[in-house]
Design goal:
Elements: H1 2-12, H2 17-30, E1 39-46, E2 49-55, H3 58-77, E3 84-85, H4 104-123, E4 126-131, H5 135-138, H6 141-151, H7 156-169, H8 189-197, H9 200-210, E5 214-217, E6 220-225, H10 228-244, E7 255-258
Parallel strand pairs: 3-5
Antiparallel strand pairs: 1-2, 4-6, 4-7, 5-6
Length: about 260
């Protein structure tokens, strides 16, 4: 019943959106804005280990997305390579539109990524496939804040509010202090953009190391190299850089493949 009421309230939020937005704006300016309790689902991954999916209240999702969209262009200008992607929402679909239209942006990006992989698969001798261990859960928010501040020239109060919302909507074990580690797993593009931008340093290393023969979809990375030695050196270098940010490659999912068919 709680879930049903929450979904109804979410659906109703778009009615009188201008008035609602003005009320939220006044609360923020006056300092009385408070983040509401999100709805959190536990989704089992394996053996009882669960991922906590966060559904913020519509007002909080709106505030967060607007704040991040305000710095979206500044962040993406710092992206060192066009070979890195993340799942993006489509905001420019004219109404009326079909549900399928909302996936157009994601689908187009995925096709571009696959084309890039195909191209360097034809040119390179080896392919490295890897990803990061528990990426979202491992992001140090203090480090993310440093990175975000270096990419943008926005006022500190805006950064404060962005990270305040992240803290308040994040899942926390009962009564334990907040660790300031981990982005919430939620379907808000702003969160995905922040996670995406945290790996720009890796993109820069891979761009220089491989002559841009790599792709990244969030934390899933595919790299084209000319030799097994180069593959090992590249893995080692990005591993060291990730450790400096409190992150790590997932060794169980890190593999080096021969790009040429074996007779």
């Amino acid at each position: 019943q709680k879930t049903s009421i929450w979904l109804i309230n979410r659906h109703d939020f778009n009615y009188n959106i201008e008035e609602r937005a003005e009320t939220i704006r006044n609360e923020i300016i006056s300092g009385s804005y408070k983040v509401s309790q999100p709805l959190i689902y536990r989704i089992e991954k394996k053996y009882g280990i669960c991922r906590h999916l966060v559904n913020p209240q519509p007002s909080d999702a709106l505030v967060f997305q607007v704040l991040v969209e305000n710095i979206n262009e500044q962040i993406l200008k710092k992206q060192p390579s066009k070979n890195a992607f993340y799942s993006r929402d489509k905001h420019s679909v004219a109404k009326p539109h079909s549900i399928e239209d909302s996936y157009f942006n994601w689908h187009e990006q995925w096709k571009r990524l696959q084309k890039k992989i195909y191209n360097f698969n034809e040119e390179k001798e080896y392919i490295v496939v890897t990803d990061l261990t528990n990426y979202y859960d491992s992001i140090d928010l203090n480090e993310l804040r440093k990175v975000l501040t270096s990419y943008t020239g926005i006022k500190e109060v805006v950064i404060d509010l962005i990270f305040k919302i992240i803290e308040d909507i994040s899942w926390k074990p009962d009564y334990l202090p907040y660790s300031r580690r981990g982005l919430p797993t939620t379907n808000i593009e702003g969160v995905r953009l922040l996670a995406h931008s945290f790996l720009f340093e890796i993109d820069e290393v891979l761009k220089q190391k491989t002559n841009n023969s790599f792709t990244r979809w969030m934390d899933d990375i595919t790299i084209g190299v000319d030799s097994k030695k180069q593959a090992i050196e590249t893995i080692s270098e990005i591993s060291d850089m990730l450790k400096s940010r409190g992150l790590a490659l997932n060794l169980s999912k890190t593999n080096i493949y021969n790009a040429r068919p074996v007779d």
